[in-house]
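STRUCTURE:
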């Protein structure tokens, strides 16, 4: 205790964070880094595997439909007009020609962006193994040789050049469709991307390969050194117990960490920003989640999951430009060519914002034809304030439809969230029922997504908290995190629309979004690092040998407990 009173925070982080790896998986990206780092490595969560089969799709993700239905199109146009009236811009059917929109004119507000911003151009990935194998490739080959010796074979093309067997991250997204690779995305819309075409076993194998590559190539942690490291899993609130259990197995069994602990993103965000009570709004690439935290404890009945995010804003941006015939005659296909999504995401981050009036600019779009160098096209972009408004009017964002995992995927016969220690077999207590039965989201009832806008979700979440004093505090302590949280003008838009969404019968007249202490993209990861460093007792940590031998033992006092029940053990140190 004397040590804790005298230690400098930076020294504590350096000493306890050097062998602590924080892993924050998301649908589009995974953030991995040592706790002592300021920011993690942020890597696209995908892998491309070489294939010798002809006719296979370049992207493994299987869509039920990729076309907008007539009713969805009508709803989207109606949502655009509603947004246009709020932003004071022309309706969709008022002016559809290039000349009527006067797109050649760039107003003074946007003029600086023309000279200061340079749109990024991407190049196709070199899929050939020209250089000597790296540490990551050598380690991966040695570690997995017994399991995949029959399939992980180097393939030659006609020129006798070796194809790379696996390609990860952004490089995987920049592979040409003509190259013999299939791109896998193990997490989709906040869940494991399990489907009839993508088995649960393959999903787990891809997660192992991606995370192992980051550990070897970015953090340079060899397999022989892993037993000296512990891992903190910061999991999205969308994950179900079965998925969390699989992640623990991956970290402890396959990646060989000595111990691990699990925290939810909402709780980690609180620690990342040094708060105790707040409404956490996490806006990722494919999902948005809302949850309220009181004194470092999640309130389970306040959780909301929205099935849209930054990727949908990108596709909405493309739809608007094509509607006004501003987009060049390019074969831009974000579903079949991930490199096009990279381009659109760059345009969204650079130019989209929320403010009244016309928001227009000149930007550079690139055409990426099969294997050919990128070709630049100057284009006039308009209505750039409409796509991010889709967060409040989801009908603007028409998500692609994916098959749901089979119902058996959610059945966990070794229910890891069953609090057997709280059972009274003599007939008292909860009569031997898992405590999860008292909550709406149980392992047998997967968490449901809600088809409402962001303002309604925040309002509904906070009003579910119960006490009026707590509600007032939460409405004045809203935190926006995730990549979408960087959108210019979003803070004032959230404050205004949440205030209007509060029923007039509620005695609440103040809504405030608190500024983030760091990049909103990494707040949850940073909070996981703080939790791991300050958790001196490590009572909730699971050791590798225990997990491998027994999993979660019935009657054991040392078992994984969801963040709903995790108390902030070291909360008193948060502002030190």
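SEQUENCE:
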């Amino acid at each position: 205790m004397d040590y804790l009173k005298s230690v400098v925070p930076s020294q504590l982080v350096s000493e306890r964070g050097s062998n602590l790896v924080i892993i924050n998986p998301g649908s589009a990206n995974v953030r991995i880094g040592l706790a002592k780092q300021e920011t993690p490595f942020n890597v696209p969560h995908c892998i491309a595997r070489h294939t010798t089969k002809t006719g296979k799709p370049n992207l493994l993700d299987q869509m039920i439909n990729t076309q907008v239905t007539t009713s969805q199109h009508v709803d989207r146009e109606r949502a655009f007009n509603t947004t246009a009236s709020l932003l004071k811009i022309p309706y969709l059917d008022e002016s559809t020609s290039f000349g009527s929109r006067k797109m050649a004119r760039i107003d003074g507000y946007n003029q600086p962006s023309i000279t200061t911003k340079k749109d990024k151009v991407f190049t196709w990935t070199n899929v050939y193994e020209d250089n000597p194998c790296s540490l990551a490739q050598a380690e991966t080959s040695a570690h997995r040789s017994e399991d995949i010796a029959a399939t992980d074979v180097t393939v030659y093309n006609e020129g006798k050049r070796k194809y790379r067997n696996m390609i990860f991250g952004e490089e995987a997204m920049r592979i040409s469709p003509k190259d013999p690779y299939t791109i896998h995305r193990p997490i989709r819309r906040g869940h494991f991307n399990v489907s009839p075409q993508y088995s649960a076993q393959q999903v787990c194998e891809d997660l192992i390969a991606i995370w192992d590559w980051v550990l070897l190539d970015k953090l340079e942690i060899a397999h022989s050194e892993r037993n000296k490291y512990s891992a903190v899993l910061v999991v999205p609130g969308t994950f179900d117990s079965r998925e969390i259990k699989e992640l623990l197995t991956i970290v402890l069994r396959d990646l060989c960490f000595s111990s691990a602990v699990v925290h939810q993103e909402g709780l980690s965000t609180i620690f990342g920003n040094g708060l105790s009570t707040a409404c956490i709004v996490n806006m990722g690439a494919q999902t948005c989640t809302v949850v309220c935290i009181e004194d470092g404890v999640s309130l389970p009945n306040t959780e909301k999951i929205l099935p849209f995010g930054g990727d949908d804003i990108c596709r909405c941006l493309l739809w608007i430009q094509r509607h006004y015939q501003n987009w060049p005659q390019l074969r831009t296909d974000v579903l079949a060519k991930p490199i096009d999504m990279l381009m659109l995401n760059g345009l969204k981050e650079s130019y989209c914002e929320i403010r009244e009036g016309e928001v227009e600019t000149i930007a550079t779009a690139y055409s990426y034809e099969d294997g050919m160098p990128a070709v630049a096209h100057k284009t006039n972009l308009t209505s750039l304030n409409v796509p991010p408004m889709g967060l409040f009017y989801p009908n603007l964002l028409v998500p692609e439809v994916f098959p749901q995992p089979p119902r058996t995927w959610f059945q966990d016969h070794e229910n890891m969230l069953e609090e057997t220690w709280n059972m009274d077999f003599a007939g008292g207590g909860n009569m031997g029922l898992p405590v999860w039965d008292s909550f709406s989201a149980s392992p047998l009832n997967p968490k449901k997504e809600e088809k409402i806008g962001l303002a309604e979700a925040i309002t509904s979440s906070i009003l579910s908290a119960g006490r009026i004093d707590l509600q007032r505090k939460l409405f004045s302590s809203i935190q926006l995190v995730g990549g979408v949280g960087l959108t210019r003008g979003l803070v004032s838009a959230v404050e205004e629309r949440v205030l209007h969404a509060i029923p007039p019968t509620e005695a609440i007249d103040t809504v405030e979004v608190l500024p983030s202490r760091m990049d909103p993209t990494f707040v949850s990861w940073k909070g996981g690092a703080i939790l791991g460093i300050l958790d001196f007792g490590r009572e909730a940590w699971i050791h590798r040998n225990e997990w491998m031998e027994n999993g979660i033992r019935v009657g054991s006092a040392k078992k994984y407990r969801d963040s709903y029940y995790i108390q902030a053990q070291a909360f008193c140190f948060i502002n030190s």
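REMARK: Residues 200-218 form the longest helix (19 residues).
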